[in-house]
Write a structure and sequence with these properties.
By secondary structure, the chain is α/β, with parallel strands linked by helices. The chain is built from 25 helices and 30 strands. About 40% of the residues lie in helices and about 20% in strands. The strands form 6 sheets. A 7-stranded mixed sheet has the order 9-8-11-10-12-13-14, sandwiched between helices. Helix 3 packs parallel to helix 4, helix 11 runs parallel beside helix 16 and helix 19 crosses helix 20. The chain binds adenosine-5'-diphosphate (ADP) and magnesium ion.
Length: about 725
């Protein structure tokens, strides 16, 4: 027996701390198991009570004669160690500690928690909690509600993991209203032993789980191995969608960070990166959790994003049409045959082009014929049916017609029967047959959108990795040299040299200490040139009026030198000015940013996005955890809003996306090879026309003592 089986499907359960006082947790959990119709054997353990709810109580766990698979412990922390010792003696296989008062209350509680976790580990017992709501398995062969949620959910194919106990009861309540059924339901509390990772694995192997929903506050995981294993769950054999709400989304980036990347990349960006890399779908609200889980239940994934809308109401049809675009969908262009079929079945006033308006007085036949015609169209990947209840609308008949067609097709069909009372009978029918249905068309559109996102994830192309030969030693020497001199940043010239060793194209750049030298250097490089201030106190040079581009001759170069020094002095009178860099002017290109910020446990977080001096305003950026391979680099580039511009928008030439991807991978290699790099910005990296590569125009590298926890992320 897998030890988590003892938690979810025990043959016998002992409730240690069962109470005869209604309203007490120890009473309610016992009552919920008993009245929920648990199919195994149940024992109340309480040294002071004779019986609980008419079941004879036992004074201690060891007084139970038969074997006990699962012990529910609802007792004060000071008694817990003794109770766990008894569990070990008794040979229980799983323990759920419902009681609170451990890690969350301070050091003493944490110590007890760690101690019982260690005891269980040594004895091969799995421990859930402490500080949790319990476990529910509604399957007819178990029917166990070992929790203090009053409601036993219906049987279904969704499994839930929650770090918050309180949210569980609300989720169960919502679920009932929406006709949702669960396979397994667990609240994990403090996660002393069993954590979300164990449960994701377990649910993935559970034949009754088709969709996993999860609420978490933090993940305790590390590195690439976690991501690879989750990826296998979400897209390998038996791919299972995982939906997550992660609280704390609005936490800001580190305000004191001295790079663009550091300023934008807060811990939430790390979570986003992990979720995206692993194929976990992050949602913002409990509503979305339900909306999307419902969409996944029929297991129908669209081939692509062209959808058809069939509606009896013009307005909602337009709303849905608007929403399709923001959900990443488009309205399918219907084939001739489809339009002809629609014309033959619909009145002359009906719109036979997408969105198909079957008109307010539509009968169920009209809906059926229209939906049947569009769903057969090879240009259509999925359909949405909208219904508003007019006096002549046959709500239940239409629902049945939709069920009939939806069952016949491999394409997803979602509905929005708009309203509450008048449409409720139809909604019930749809729910009974697992046809996703939503009160509002915008939710239906978002649900179809998420199915398309999943389709893209499942069908993602996997390209062979790049094989680069970097001049690692050279870069390492420069970085270690600075580090040993206790200079915790790389000067721009050193920075460029390091990037060059990793295959980046850089521009000729020379330091000039005075106006005379600047003029001579500019002559040597050849006009036009660029000049930039060099001062350890000035981080963003343009802020200080410290950058002049397109200098065409000696006069301009001399004037630029004087202007730059003057503005820098005015910007910060204490700034030490080392001189001015004279740099070759780059060929035109799109300005993007490539950056890195290092996080304990998770490792280096790589950022890519729209570059230039307005990075923080647009925040059009995407993150991934290094190591990044070619495929992740590709999705990064594709997922920013400026991508269409790089891809050749409105007749502009396509940019060198391939070279850009290569540089993302090279940057990931660089920061993994050099743990002293703490933060890095390449901004801008100029992406030239296709075939012409990319050029670094500015780089900033900050060093620090390598964090042992960051190094750990690489190896674990
Ligand atoms: P900072 O980011 O410190 O303000 P940059 O070196 O990035 O300074 O320069 C600011 C802007 O000047 C860049 O975003 C880019 O538009 C332009 N620029 C800088 N260097 C060059 C160059 N060598 N060729 C062309 N344009 C440049
Ligand atoms: Mg810059």
């Amino acid at each position: 027996m897998n030890n988590l089986d003892a938690i979810f499907s025990p043959e016998s359960v002992a409730v240690v701390g069962a109470s005869s006082k209604p309203g007490k947790v120890g009473h309610d959990i016992f009552k919920n198991i008993l009245w929920g119709g648990y199919t195994g054997t149940l024992y109340p353990v309480n040294p002071k009570a004779k019986s609980i709810l008419c079941v004879k109580a036992l004074p201690g766990l060891l007084n139970i004669e038969d074997k006990v698979d699962l012990a529910m412990l609802i007792i004060p922390p000071k008694l817990i160690i003794k109770a766990v010792e008894d569990c070990i003696k008794k040979g229980v296989k799983g323990i759920v500690v419902v009681s609170a008062g451990f890690r969350e209350v301070g050091k003493e509680g944490l110590e007890i928690e760690n101690r019982i976790a260690a005891m269980c580990r040594a004895a091969g017992i799995r421990l859930v909690g402490p500080n949790c709501l319990g476990v529910i398995n509604p399957h007819s062969s178990i029917r166990m509600n070992a929790s203090f949620a009053a409601r036993m959910p219906a049987v279904g194919n969704i499994s839930f993991i929650s770090q918050s106990g309180a949210l569980c009861t609300a989720v169960l309540d919502f679920a009932d209203d929406r006709g949702f059924g669960f396979s397994k339901f667990i609240s994990i509390g403090n996660k002393a032993d069993v954590d979300e990772f164990d449960l994701l694995r377990y649910y993935h192997n559970d034949p009754d789980t088709d969709v996993i929903m999860m609420y978490i506050e933090e993940l305790r995981l590390c590195g690439q191995e976690f991501i690879d294993e989750i990826k296998e769950i979400t897209s390998g054999n038996n791919p299972t969608p995982i939906l997550v709400i992660k609280s704390g989304k609005t936490s800001a980036g580190a305000a004191a960070a001295s790079s663009h990347t550091g300023a934008i990349a807060g811990t939430e960006a790390v979570y986003d990166a992990i979720f995206e890399e692993a194929g976990i779908i992050r949602v913002d609200t409990v509503n979305e959790l339900f909306d999307y889980a419902e969409a996944f239940i029929p297991k129908k994934i669209p081939r692509s994003n062209s959808i058809a809308i069939v509606t009896n109401a013009g307005g909602p049809g337009i709303v849905a049409t608007d929403m399709t675009e923001s959900a990443g969908l488009k309205l399918a262009k219907l084939g001739k045959e489809t339009v002809n079929a629609l014309k033959s079945h619909l009145p002359a006033t009906a719109n036979t082009h997408n969105p198909i308006d079957v008109i307010g007085d539509a009968s169920m036949e009209r809906y059926e014929k229209a939906l049947d015609a569009v769903i057969k169209d090879e240009n259509v990947d999925g359909a949405m049916v909208i219904l508003t209840p007019q006096s002549m609308t046959d709500v239940t008949g239409t629902a049945e017609a939709v069920v009939k067609i939806a069952k016949r097709t491999s394409k997803p069909v979602v509905c929005s029967f708009m309203g509450i009372f008048d449409v409720s009978a139809g909604v019930k029918i749809l729910q009974q047959h697992h046809i996703p249905t939503y009160t509002f068309p915008e939710n239906a559109a978002k649900a179809l959108g998420i199915l398309n996102t999943r389709s893209k994830w499942l069908n993602r192309q996997i390209l062979a990795q790049y094989e680069f030969k970097h001049a690692k030693e050279k870069a390492g020497e420069i970085i270690k040299g600075c580090f040993n001199r206790k200079q915790m940043y790389l000067g721009e010239l050193d920075g460029l040299e390091v990037l060059k060793s990793y295959g980046f194209t850089t521009l000729t750049t020379i330091l000039a200490k005075d106006e005379e030298e600047a003029a001579k250097t500019a002559d040597r490089i050849g006009y036009p040139v660029v000049m930039k201030i060099v001062s350890p106190q000035i981080i963003h040079k343009s802020d200080a009026g410290g950058v002049k581009v397109g200098l065409k001759n000696e006069d301009e170069a001399r004037r630029a030198f004087r202007d730059i020094v003057k503005s820098a002095n005015a910007f910060n009178p204490d700034a030490a000015i080392d001189g001015v860099l004279v740099q070759e002017m780059a060929r035109p290109g799109h300005e993007v940013i490539l950056g890195m910020n290092r996080y304990p446990v998770f490792g280096p977080l790589i950022m890519f996005g729209m570059g230039g001096i307005f990075v923080e305003i647009f925040k059009d950026v995407v993150f991934r955890i290094a190591p990044i391979g070619r495929n992740n680099a590709r999705t990064m580039v594709k997922s920013v809003k400026v991508f269409p511009m790089l891809d050749g928008f409105r007749g502009t030439p396509k940019a060198d996306i391939e070279a850009l991807q290569q540089m993302i991978v090279s940057l990931s290699d660089l920061v993994l090879d050099n743990p002293e790099i703490r933060e890095l910005d390449i901004n801008p990296l100029l992406v030239h026309e296709d075939g012409q590569g990319v050029t670094v125009a500015d780089v900033r590298i900050i060093l620090s003592e390598p964090d042992p926890e960051c190094a750990l992320a690489k190896n674990c």
